[in-house]
Design brief:
104 residues; mainly alpha; two-stranded antiparallel ribbon; 26% helix
Amino acid sequence: MTAVFDEPPGDAGDWSEEQWRAWLAEAPPDPDTGRAHPLTRATSSPSGTVLGAAMLGLQQAIYGERPRVEVVAEADADGLDLGAVDLDAADPAASRLTLRPESP
């Protein structure tokens, strides 16, 4: 069974945005090519996935890596034995915390 879809009006302002979205969402594929209407959202294809990954890699090559988000929380540690703490103010990623195993 083939559904019949209305053609869009001659003046685009005659339809509301909701009517346009509904028409685009329900647009049948083109009988000649079998493809969906060019204005509908295309699903992901393998070539599109590769192209998107290449574009993201190019962005990283040009602008550098995105900054990593670090979450820092301060807490009271009165009476808490943290073990050996070696803080490196110049390079916080190099800081180390060594915890001793609990004794039974």
